[in-house]
Amino acid sequence: MGSQGGWGQSKEFLDLVKSIGEARSKAEEERIVLHEIETLKRRIADPDVPKRKMKEYIIRLVYVEMLGHDASFGYIHAVKMTHDDSLLLKRTGYLAVTLFLNEDHDLIILIVNTIQKDLKSDNYLVVCAALSAVCKLINEETIPAVLPQVVELLGHPKEAVRKKAIMALHRFYQKAPGSVTHLVSNFRKKLCDNDPGVMGATLCPLFDLITTDVNSYKDLVVSFVSILKQVAERRLPKSYDYHQMPAPFIQIRLLKILALLGAGDKQSSEHMYTVLGDIFRKCESSSNIGNAILYECISCVSSIYPNSKLLDAAAEVTSKFLKSDSHNLKYMGIDALGRLIKINPDIAEEHQLAVIDCLEDPDDTLKRKTFELLYKMTKSTNVEVIVDRMIDYMISISDNHYKTEIAFRCVELAEQFAPSNQWFIQTMNKVFEHAGDLVNPKVAHNLMRLIAEGFGEEDETADSQLRSSAVESYLKIVGEPKLPSLFLQVICWVLGEYGTADGKYSASYISGKLCDVAEAHSNDDTVKAYAITAIMKIYAFEIAEGRKVELLPECQSLIDELSASHSTDLQQRAYELQALLGLESCAVECVMPSDASCEDIEVDKNLSFLNGFVHKSLEKGARPYIPENERSGMVAMSTFRNHGETESSSHALRFEAYELPKPAVPANLPVLLTSSADPDSVQEPIQPKVFHQSSLVPSSLDSLPGDTGLKLRLDGVQKKWGRPTYSSPVPSSSASNTHRTANGATEPSGSDTVGFQARDTPYDSRKQQVEVSAEKQRLAASLFGGAPSRNERSRSSSTHKASKGTTPNSEKPRPPASTQHAVEQSAPQPPLDLLDLRELTTTATSTPSVDPFQQLEGLLESPLVSSSDIPVATVAPKTNDLMGLLDAPSVGLNTGILNSSLANLHSTSVQSEPPAATNKISHHGGNSVVAKKGPNLQDSLEKDAVARQVGVTPSGRNPNLFKDLLG
């Protein structure tokens, strides 16, 4: 291995570390590491490696793993090293294992036993190593295995063990809070530990617990204040000082906890005032750690119940931060000022020039933090300066994420504090022009709504001026290139609604501008749709006023182009415009009323206007509406339609991929059985069904014509045993449930979301004279001007409420109460199918489920019609081997001339025939004769039960199987 180097490692290991550090490229580093991996694989596999060498190999594996390469071939050797008796090797093994494995690794189960043994060790260093591994490797499932031992270590005589036990319990709480909820009292006790390290470690779990439930720890306020006072008065040992600051990290954690406990609580906050004032006076601001404590103290003062003296002290410290030359301290000062102005907005006025300096600082992070501060302190007197600054900054940055945020803030401030209509329109134009497709589509919808509804005042003159200024500004910029699509949609809508409202511009001029927009953006269907609709509004308003409309040639060419468009939406709009031009003025006024966007839309969620139609339809025999919640819980059994056709249950299991085609046959043909085209084919046994004769079927089945014998029509009748070969020709209940009445109303959105490009033309903004102090003072006076009066603030906020309205979500209306009552009274009750032995799905009004076998046994003992009273087909010779049926292929039934008369026969037999008809039809040589009664049906039921216990599914070629089971 070569001569020994420093730290007891070989020269080869030191050369490896040196070569990795001197690697000049990633490829060279990977070459060195891959060569090291091959060397370690070869040497670790040697069974006679000394422990000292194995320790070095494990450390070299740690280097390989940290550099991003796979060292999994050596994981098991690190696990084995944790079992070693040597303290040095054990700690090396634990270190490697915590770096190699995660809590879900397969090798964790091998570590748990070792950890349990080491937690009971007499050597506290071994216990500390095991506790360190517990925090990293124990998962939620293995917490109960080590939790009792960790709790026991809270009373260990060594403070290092107690501290690590607290850390382990905190980790358990983070992974599974329910596992340590009963140990909260232990955290409270350890808060009074003699060792400051243990007390400081206890603050971390207590902070998480207080964040979750503040009220449960109000009683600890006095204790926390007492601890903070002792720390601030330097009563802790000198070993806890950091840069001449007494236990600064314990102070920061205590200030965070006090900020939570004192929020909105005057009584608790009064206990904190004295110690917070002492920290402001005694804390040194010459070091970074001292400034960190002061910043945390300002955060605590701004969170608890306010105190004027503490706020003054906090403002003084904030002023020092803002006047510092360090960007980090300026950042802290801007953030602290943002917290303080929430309590007292006048504090910001004292730091006007400092904020202006931060706003013009080249540090982008500091500039963003300053804009956040200005956003919080915006009011009607400084909104123009702040929004203009934010727009200038938005133009200069290239970060789309932050540009989107700045655009949203500019729009929000403009809507809340706009001093005039013209300024608001110009500001929105700048935001749309320079933010492009980054603007939220809701902003465009809110802008159109604001222009339509005005500022919420009753002064129509002000609203008209707003619309006129919007039209004038849009006509000036509509011809500029590279306007965003969303902005063009707003322009087209405003020009269509209010382009000719004030009489300054003619319909021909406005329609010509709109045609130019549609022509310039021929690839944007949404813009063309807005343009053609705006042209339709312009001409509609002209026709409604009785003026003669002269269609411009470019408008006619646009209509012709859109009429042949591939977009059906554009075609529809073009045809509507052509039809509108041919209507009378009175009709046009009804179709396209002026300023209809401000009309209130009343939505009848219950659709009460359909009640009369519903009652008439129910009187004529229409099926009542079944609510969706009742449909989903209906009983899973076959139901009958009004015309007598059977319907398969939508909840039944399906064993075939597709349904077989069924020919359309008249419903009045007799039930016949024809010979198969293949003479060797064997008919599949037919599922017996209990039914009675009716007037629709001949009373004597001997008179029915047939070639070889009679056969039942079983289309739509679900087979209870075996595979179904036919399905119902009518739609299933699940399909019928999908046809629902569209009884909801949805309001159209303000605009469509379409991708578009941002404008490349830079915004011409004025430059700030940074060096001139007088200019700074004027800017500061604009930003931090006198606060408006209360009446002015209330008026400005109330007049802009309409712009922030949102369209309520449309709710799905419930059917009228009368319809629901009709559904409950007239819902048809399907007849019970005795052979349907599936589990019934109960609804909210159904009776408790009853065992169908008990019902069947009760019926079989009564003198009802036997299941043998049905026609059966000619069958093959009987076989006694039931299990042999599983190997036989199934043969489908012949559907040559079968019809659907069984549905009518089955639905009417229960009402028309008395239970005295007990004849059985057998077949001999194709002639049907009346035979005697079959064997006892009770025996058949027992045979059926035996067959079910055996597990035989009668789907083979034995046509006598049902005869054998049911007699």
From TrEMBL:
Ranges of Basic and acidic residues composition bias in the record: 761-778
Keyword Membrane: yes
Subunit structure: Adaptor protein complex 4 (AP-4) is a heterotetramer composed of two large adaptins, a medium adaptin and a small adaptin.
Species per Swiss-Prot/TrEMBL record: Aristolochia fimbriata
Coiled-coil blocks: none
Swiss-Prot/TrEMBL GO biological process terms: intracellular protein transport; vesicle-mediated transport
Predominant subcellular localization, coarse grouping: membrane
Ranges for domain Clathrin/coatomer adaptor adaptin-like N-terminal: 41-582
SUPFAM superfamilies (UniProt xref): ARM repeat
Protein name according to UniProt: AP-4 complex subunit epsilon
Amino acid composition bias (Low complexity), ranges on this chain: 694-705, 727-736
